[in-house]
Every structure is written in structure tokens, then in C-alpha cells.
Amino acid sequence: MAHDHAGHDHHHHGPPADGNFSRAFAWGITLNLLFVAGEAAGGLWANSSALLSDAGHNLSDVLSLALAWGATLLARRRAAERFTYGYKGATIQAALLNAALLYLALGFILWDTIDHLRHPAPVNGPVVMALAGLGVLINGFTAWLFQSGQKADVNVRGAYLHMLTDMLVSVGVVVGGALVYFTGWLWLDPAISFVILAVVGYSSWGLLRETMQLGLQAAPVGIEVGAVRRFLLARPGVTALHDLHIWPLSTQDTALTVHLVRPGGQNSNQFLRELQHDLLHEFNIHHCTVQLEDDYPLMGAHGCCDA
Asked: Where is the Cation efflux protein transmembrane domain (predicted)?
């Protein structure tokens, strides 16, 4: 019976969840906290409930950024006696919570938009447009900081989408404020907000679905279980396999366990080294445990489910 644990000393594909992004998180939190303070003050001065509501929404985004950053830092901690995989799973929990917070924020903006549609009120247009324009710059810059890592890490993607959502909402406030200022049509501002909310809600659905799947330990998006099974069955000497499981350890790290039936079992160490290397580079699977068996089924080798 042979086991192999892969990946702690290998290069991980994709950008790191910390390092470069620690600076992005720090910049994003600092800039957005300053913007929240300025937006709240401007909202009180301009008598704009829209600005005050957006300030509250941006404050929730600061919390989301802090949550995502804390998870990436927690994931760096070493494994412990009880937490044998370390704290990598915190990034999945943070990503799932951030996806839920994103839709909660959209719901809050929707409620506020409906209220503005039902009870339109004049505001100080130039102040609203100036502050919203500043929001476009700040949120756009913050979103850009996370853009390079949002495809490789769901946790980073959550932060990216939060900032992108804020930028689009701010664009809507600028456009709506300008149109209302020059036309006097107060209904234009909430009408534009409805369009933006629909676009953001639709584009963010994939994030919510993927984070829920990761929380349920589904095979990560981009790894086809059938392709992994065919790859393993094609290895030299392998005649069958069972108990194949693939699940995420974090938003970046993937684990695999499998029982391979390989009669004879010659050159097992070399076979396992090559398999470890190929699983990492072909499927980006960082941690693998492989049990080699002469016969199928090996008595008492089955787990709770077969694959």
C-alpha cells in the first residue's frame, strides 16, 4: 500500500492570494474608508439620501475587503494538530460570505432606488455628481488592483466584483445626476439604477454559484473529473480505480485522493513521483494522496462513497 502527498513545495499556478494583493487590500480599504467619510459628509450637506445610502453601502464593501484580506492572511498560517490542512478553507468561507454580502448590498440599493422612484426629491446636483465621480475613480482603481487575480482566485474575484459594482453604481449616479440636473426629470436617476442593478446581478450570479459549490466541496471549476479519471486510467500499469475524490482546500488549492489498481506495482516510487508532477501541471491539483492496490476491491479499502 503506497501513499503520496503532493504539493507543499511546488509552484502554485495563478497569482498569490497575498503578497501583491496585500497591498491591493490595504489600498482598497484605506481609499474606501476616506471616501465613505467624504461621501457621508457630502450627503448631509447636499441633502442627498442617495449619497448617504451609497456611503453605507461603501462601508459594507470596506468590511468585505477586510474579510477577504483576513482570510488570505489566515490561510498562510501553518497547519496545526487539529487543523491538519491549515486554515486555507477560510478563503472559501470568506468568498461565500462576500458573494452573499454582494447580493445583500444589491438588495439594499434596489430598495433605496424604489424609494427614490416613489418619492423623488431635489438634490444638489453638482455636489452629487462630483462625489459620485470621485467614487468612480476610487472604486475603479481598487477594482483594477484585483483584476489580474480575479480569474484564478474566487476570494479575490469577490473583492473585484464588489469594487466593480460600486464603480458602476457611481457611474449611474453621475449620469443620472447630470440628466436630472439638465432636464429636471427626477425619475431618470432611479431608472438608470435599475439597469445597473440588473447588469451587476446577472454578471455576479456565477460568483455566487461557484462559491456555493466550493463550500459544498465540489470539484473546482476548470477541473473536469471525467478527464482526471481518464488520465489516471491511462497511467502505465493501471487497470482500474475507485474512490476518486477531488475537492477544494481553498480558493486556490485543490486536493485529490484515489485508489489505483496496479497489479505488480513495479517502480512504485517513480510512478508516484511522475503522477504527482503530472497532476499538478495538467490539472493544477496541488495535494494528492494515491493508494496503490494489486487487486480490486482491496478488503476494507472503500470509503463512504465510490467514484
From this structure: 29-213
- For the record, the C-alpha cell of 60 comes out as 459594507
Structure confidence at residue 275 (pLDDT): 93
The C-alpha cell 444638489 sits at 124
* CA 304 distance to own-chain centroid: 30
Nearest Cα neighbor of 210 from 201, 219, 200, 202 is: 219
- 241 in the same domain as 174: no
Residue 10 binned pLDDT confidence (cut-offs 50, 70, 90): very low
The DSSP-derived string for 44-68 is HHHT-HHHHHHHHHHHHHHHHHHHH
CATH code, domain with 201: 1.20.1510.10
Domain's final residue, options 185, 216, 247? 216
Can you tell me which residue has the cell 459594482?
165
Kindly state whether residues 209 and 232 are assigned to the same domain. Answer: no
Instruction: Fill in the DSSP letter of residue 242.
Output: E
Rounded Cα distance between 225 and 210, Å, is 16
Q: Classify the phi-psi angles of 236: left when phi > 0, otherwise alpha if psi is within -120 to 50, otherwise beta.
A: beta
> At which residue does the C-alpha cell 494522496 appear?
289
Spatial separation of the C-alpha atoms in residues 252 and 262, rounded to whole Å: 31
Range of the domain at 147: 21-216
Tell me: the pLDDT tens digits for 60-84? 778 888 888 888 888 888 887 888 8
**Whole-Å CA distances, 303 to 259, 286, 306:** 10, 22, 7
One-letter amino acid of 19: G
Residue with cell 454580502: 101
Q: Which residue has the cell 487497470?
A: 239
